[in-house]
Amino acid sequence: MKALIEKTYTADGRAELGKIFNMCEPFTEPPISKDIQFFLANVLSVFGGFIQYAGGCRLPDVSYFCNLIIHDGDTDGIGIILNAWKIYDQVFRFEECFDQSYENHLEDLSDISFVDNEFASYRSWLWLSCTELGFFITTDNGKSIFGSSISLG
């Protein structure tokens, strides 16, 4: 994870991340910190999603996921994270590309027209998680492999 975070520090690194993670648009230059945090939070949510849904109808168990992400002897951090990202995309289906813009995400969540039932249910689930259950994908304490990349604030 350290190598991935370090790539967010330089324009070349951010451009590389944009390509390998199939971002709809490159990070702005200079970068917006919320966009980088949003991207890193989405990387974290891939791992959280596998843990949360392991043993359910979509994934057998956590060890199955771990075996998948380290296939082909990929042992560097970014390779493993990218494998997880691709597997998550196959299971949960992202859009054509990944929009790392935090502002665009807020705009999407503000749309109350409910044209898409799946997005409407996501919006409701996110509201419930944030207001009632506690949805804190954060690394504020810095004591994990993710460092202090995702602020609670």
From TrEMBL:
Coiled coil: none annotated. This is SMI1/KNR4 family protein. One of its GO terms (biological process) is proteolysis. It comes from the Eukaryota. The keyword Signal applies. InterPro entries: AB_hydrolase_fold (IPR029058), Peptidase_S28 (IPR008758), Ser_carbopepase_S28_SKS (IPR042269). It holds the Pfam family Peptidase_S28. PANTHER family: PROTEASE S28 PRO-X CARBOXYPEPTIDASE-RELATED (PTHR11010), SERINE PROTEASE F56F10.1-RELATED (PTHR11010:SF101). GO terms for molecular function: dipeptidyl-peptidase activity; serine-type exopeptidase activity. Gene3D superfamilies: alpha/beta hydrolase, Serine carboxypeptidase S28, SKS domain. Transmembrane segments: none annotated. Belongs to the peptidase S28 family. Keywords: Glycoprotein, Hydrolase, Protease, Signal. It comes from Brugia pahangi.
